[in-house]
Amino acid sequence: METPNERLTAFSIELIDTHTWLREELARLRADIDAYLDGVGGRPRDLRAHCLTFCSALTRHHTGEDDHVFPALADEFPELRPTLEKLREDHHLVADILRRLEVLVAEADPADARRVRSELDGLAAILESHFGYEERRIASALDELKQTFDSSGLDVRVLTDGPAAP
Ligand SMILES: [Fe+2]
Ligand SMILES: [Fe+2]
C-alpha cells in the first residue's frame, strides 16, 4: 500500500505527465491543421473530433485542479493563495479560448481553419507559460508537503482521488 509521501510523489508525476500529454496533443492538433491548410491533411470531420477531444481533456484537467487540487493546497499553504488565484485566472482565459474554438469547430466551415489555427497559437502560448508556472509552484509545494506531512495532518486523498486526468 502506498504511503502518503508516495501518493504525493505519484500525484506530482501525474500532474507533469498530464501536462506533457496535453502539450503533445496540442502540437499534433496544430500540425494536423497545418497539413489541412496545406491541402495534404485529413478530413475536416476528423480534425473537428480531434479538436473537441482535446478541448474536453483540457477542460477536465483544469476542472480537477479548480475543484480538488487548488482548494486542498490553499488550505495547507495559505501563502500559495495568490499563486492559485493567478492560475485560476489562466484557467478562465483558457476556457474563453476553448469556447471560441468549440463554436468555430462546430460551424464546420473549412474556411475557418485559419481562425482555428490562430486560436490554437494563442492557446499554446498561454498553456506553455501556465503549465511551466504551475509545475514549478505546485511541484515545490508538494515537495514541501512531503517533508512536513507527519505534522500536517492533510488527507492527501483529497489531492490524489480527484477526477482522473486523461
Ligand atoms: Fe492549471
Ligand atoms: Fe495543470
Automatic annotation (TrEMBL):
Signal peptide annotation: none
Pfam families the UniProt entry points to: Hemerythrin
Protein's name in the database: Hemerythrin domain-containing protein
Gene3D superfamilies, A to Z: nmb1532 protein domain like (1.20.120.520)
Transmembrane segments: none
Hemerythrin-like domain residues: 15-140
InterPro entries hit by this protein: Dimeric_xanthone_biosynth, Hemerythrin-like
